[in-house]
Design brief:
Layout: E1 8-10, E2 13-15, H1 18-41, H2 48-61, E3 65-66, E4 79-82, E5 85-87, E6 102-111, E7 114-123, H3 129-146, E8 153-154, H4 156-168, E9 172-173, E10 179-181, E11 188-192, E12 203-204, E13 209-212, E14 215-217, E15 223-225, E16 233-235, E17 241-243, E18 246-251, E19 254-257
Antiparallel strand pairs: 1-2, 3-6, 4-6, 5-16, 6-7, 8-12, 9-14, 10-11, 13-18, 14-17, 15-16, 18-19
Length: about 260
């Protein structure tokens, strides 16, 4: 019989034990392997449905489960968000990657009951300089955020740093959608804002595990949700959006990135 995971909390935020962080790290290794597999094969001419098949195949072959599949009714194993899609794009056989596209592939994994979460941007063939700069800045926002992950400091410091950096590069940050705690469940407290003010939000205590995943828009931060599927989030102005995501654990002496 599997032992129940003991869940310690500070306020509403789960705080993981060393053993639980070890479990999330193992899940993260599979998550990273799946993204590596996609990265080696993604190209113009394939459908986003094919990406979904890759993710399901590799995840299950490694003894894990794709966390998005069936989550609150989500129909696929991965989110594929192309060009003006901010997040939660649903793979489709009719959606074919084209030269010049940018796409976010968001992979989440359950392994032995532990959840991990990460996403990467991919540039398909020759991509415009404007799009490449957006993708690069979104990745740089992760590094800026990580520099502010410090034990016993408010999480708002991290979100504020990300926001200021993105704005300084001429971009906007989606406000209402952010990161989240992860590890024992797919989505846990805290909600992680990337438009926060310094000195606000939960205190980052050792054992807290959450995602850094700011959504950076070339134009306005405004968005709308596809009325037909209830999932896919688009930029209001049709301009491109980019996002990278990592899962990070707060430690006594700093942090550890558990996915890449």
């Amino acid at each position: 019989m599997r032992k129940r995971k003991r869940i310690m909390k500070v306020g509403n935020v789960p705080v993981k034990s060393r053993a639980q962080i070890d479990g999330i790290r193992e899940s993260g290794r599979i998550n990273t392997a799946v993204l590596d597999y996609v990265g080696e094969r993604i190209r113009a001419g394939i459908s986003t449905e094919e990406i979904d098949r890759w993710v399901y195949q590799v995840t299950t072959e490694l003894g894990a489960v794709p966390a998005p599949l069936g989550y609150e009714g989500f129909p696929k194993s991965v989110c594929t968000s192309r060009n003006s899609v901010i997040c939660h794009g649903i793979p489709d056989e009719q959606e074919i990657l084209k030269e010049g596209d940018i796409i976010n592939v968001d992979v989440s994994t359950i392994y032995k009951g532990y959840f991990s979460d990460a996403s990467r941007m991919f540039c398909i063939g020759e991509v415009s300089a404007d799009k490449r700069r957006l993708v690069r800045t979104a990745r740089e926002c992760i590094q800026v955020g990580l520099m502010e992950v410090k034990p016993y400091q408010p999480i708002g410091n991290m979100g504020h740093a990300v926001h200021m950096y993105a704005q300084g590069q001429g971009y906007s940050v989606v406000e209402e959608i952010g990161g989240h705690g992860v590890g024992l469940q797919f989505h846990e407290d805290p909600f992680v804002s990337y438009v926060a003010r310094r000195g606000t939000g939960e205190i980052m205590v050792p054992g807290m595990v959450f995602t850094i995943e700011p959504m950076i828009n070339m134009g306005s931060p405004e968005f709308y949700v596809d009325e037909k599927n209830g999932w896919t989030v688009y930029t209001e102005d049709g301009m491109p959006s980019a996002q990278w995501e990592v899962t990070v654990a707060v430690l006594e002496d700093g942090y550890e990135v558990l996915t890449s």
